Amino acid sequence: MNKLIEKAKKISSNLPPLKFNFDNSNSYYRGYSKEKKRGIGEEFWEYKKFQLGDPVRNIDWKKSIKSKDIFIKFKEMETSKKVWIWMNTSLSMKYKNSPNHETKAERASIIGIILIDIFIRAGESVGIIGSKLGLRNGKENFFNLVNVFLKCVKDPRDKRIKKGDIIILISDFLEKPEKSISKITMISDNIKEGILIQTLDESEINFPFFGRNQFYDPLSGLHKLFNKSEVIKKSYIKKVKEHNRKLEILCSRFGWTVFRTVSNESYNSFIKNLYNRF
């Protein structure tokens, strides 16, 4: 576990904070005191740490002078974005074909930890789907979130998720696409903004097998022996492409986006794709 966190932090430390821009809206930094301005009606204020690109005119110098950080002042927004993350921890995620690569579970864990770190640094509120831990923000909550994330529950259900929240599901999604979609619908009602991160081993995409091989499905327990594995390579790759395309089409109907990461791909390259999207 410590090695995964150490590797993820090493990668994320070189990345800027990531903020979502769905509907041109970002989360606001919670955890600092709110100020209430009385007059005709009431206004509530919230704060987040100043980042490059933030309007200088919004800096609250009175609050900033009391701290080593500079804070931006905003009116409270009830529709602020929250990020909820879930990872598949089933046996299928334990697979790797090359000793030089991580298992799918390890790769999914590292990606999840990276995302938690860059969201937290951006001032976003992060929650782990299905856990007892609620939404958290601030760097002091990083390890609590990571520890809970690495022990994700089997099914991504959580009644705390509200309309407008951002959902991130990390898995290999090799089951029937319709079953993957059922995960989306079971999470919560009215979820319109979500991301599937499909984590695959390189061999599951390219099928580099030759000669006699026995393949094993850890979920069903089924074994299949091929004397000439290369004979089925073409049809296998075709089916994988069709599967992934169907998953993308079905997700798009729900307004969800599919990102794919493969074991021979650099983490920086994958995270860059996320930055380009948001």
3D structure, described in words:
- The chain is α/β, with parallel strands linked by helices and 278 residues long.
- The protein has 2 domains: 2-18 and 80-277, Rossmann fold; 29-75, no CATH class.
- Helix content is 32%, strand content 21%.
- It is built from 8 helices and 10 strands.
- It has helices spanning 2-12, 61-64, 104-121, 142-149, 177-187, 202-206, 233-253, 267-277; strands at 35-39, 41-49, 71-75, 82-87, 125-128, 166-171, 194-200, 213-216, 223-226, 256-262.
- The strands form 3 sheets. Strands 5-4-6-7-10 form a 5-stranded parallel β-sheet, with helices on both faces.
- Helix 3 links the parallel strand 4 (82-87) and strand 5 (125-128).
- Helix 1 (2-12) crosses helix 3 and helix 5 (177-187) packs parallel to helix 7 (233-253).
What does the secondary structure layout of this molecule look like, with pairings?
Blueprint: H1 2-12, E1 35-39, E2 41-49, H2 61-64, E3 71-75, E4 82-87, H3 104-121, E5 125-128, H4 142-149, E6 166-171, H5 177-187, E7 194-200, H6 202-206, E8 213-216, E9 223-226, H7 233-253, E10 256-262, H8 267-277
Parallel strand pairs: 4-5, 4-6, 6-7, 7-10
Antiparallel strand pairs: 1-2, 2-3, 8-9
